[in-house]
Amino acid sequence: MATSAKRAVYVFSIVPRLAQLVQEALPDVIVINIKPEGRVASEQTKAVEQLKEAEILLADNNFIGEITHLLPKLQWVQGTWAGVEGLVDLFRDKPKPNFPISRMVGDSFGQLMAEYTVGRIISHERDWFECHQNQMKGLWLHEKKIHYYRSIQDLVVGILGMGNIGKEVARCLKAFRCTVHGYSRSVPSDENRCSNVDKYWHTGELSSLLKECDYVVNIMPSTPETRGMLGGDVLKVAKKGAVLINIGRGDLLSEADLIRSLDSGWLSGAILDVFAKEPLSSESPLWKHPKVEITPHTAGTSRPEDVSKTFIQNYKRFSQGLPALFPIDWNAGY
């Protein structure tokens, strides 16, 4: 009796060990690992030829939009990143793909970004950077925020974006008895309401939220509605001493508007993991601004074990003829 041919999965990603983990989890599948030749699509001529037979593709988002139209047999694509605004922008005025493209969604992003948020708040409140500077000088000082710091339970933290990640950030903050406010575009249904949020705010109420919060944490995706949302004079009404933590997308406000908000005293600090253009230019004034703390878009990374877990979950659905989870909604923009 003839046996059916094994199904092939093509992996096209710089995420380390990803193909290996997929193969270990799916031993009856042929996993074909094609290494990207560079970081941009224009450098992938050889790789595109190797991917011509791909029906199922697990790939980094920066390659997907530029090469998938060259792969005629594709039936489903799983991205390795959570952010898809680049793909949405690319296809905004073009015919959309005739196959689903799934976003990378998983509990890991919520965990990692909640850790980042809590860790950064504690570090900022206790001024551990200054502690380290004192250590290098051999100084034992009990002064300023090093000694007279606020506890998380003393703070009001507003979260912009109450999806799965926002809910996990709220849960972790609430574990420290923080007062948590959440901002969403619409009133959540009872089943979608987060029990760890003390007060919800919605479209049209942003100014009221800003007046209440010691920290404002942005987790919102980049969409036409969110771009520039904190720009202009919006932050002028922020609570005295407020700090912005941006782990969502960098186009929430322009670099110029952010610096203006800091220099005008509307914000006392900005903790930034994302930027409108990445990598952040070495010429950017943000690098040396005394009120800014920068990390290189690492608050929630695509770890190989997490990407493979999401892909395998979706692959099993695809193999059963079920629609893949987390498809890009081209109209919503994420």
From TrEMBL:
Gene3D superfamilies: NAD(P)-binding Rossmann-like Domain. GO terms for molecular function: NAD binding; oxidoreductase activity. Keywords: NAD, Oxidoreductase, Pyruvate. Residues 120-299 form the D-isomer specific 2-hydroxyacid dehydrogenase NAD-binding domain. Transmembrane segments: none annotated. Signal peptide: none annotated. SUPFAM superfamilies: NAD(P)-binding Rossmann-fold domains. This is Putative hydroxyphenylpyruvate reductase-like isoform X1.
